[in-house]
Amino acid sequence: MAPARSCTDTAAERRNNNPRIRTVRSVDLILRAEAIAIFVAGVLAYLQLNGHPLWLLPLLLAPDVLVHNLATALVILAIGWFAAIAALALTGAIFVAHVGMDRSLGYGLKLPTDFKDTHLGRIGR
Questions:
Q1: Is residue 84 domain-resident?
Q2: Is 72 exposed, middle or buried (0-12, 13-18, 19+ CB in 10 A)?
């Protein structure tokens, strides 16, 4: 049975007490934290591979037209790392950081329903 509501309850208070909404917020927080960790890991890998810091920002924005898939980014990084191809490893590191940056800002995997619908929720909400 639902708890009784007083006439002074606001819609915001009812939303904040809804366990389903709290769970969604918790999951969103976990996904954002994970994305920030991915971003930091990619940046650290880039710097560890002696990538030039001044190129970091322009290179972070370049993958928007190339890749939005973490698995692809990790494969590129791994091939470059294990084959000792610095340029490929740096590219993979940038792609990993880019995926983390996008997801931490709410730009997740796009859904077929609308460009603004992502696995992290609707962009701009």
A1: yes
A2: middle
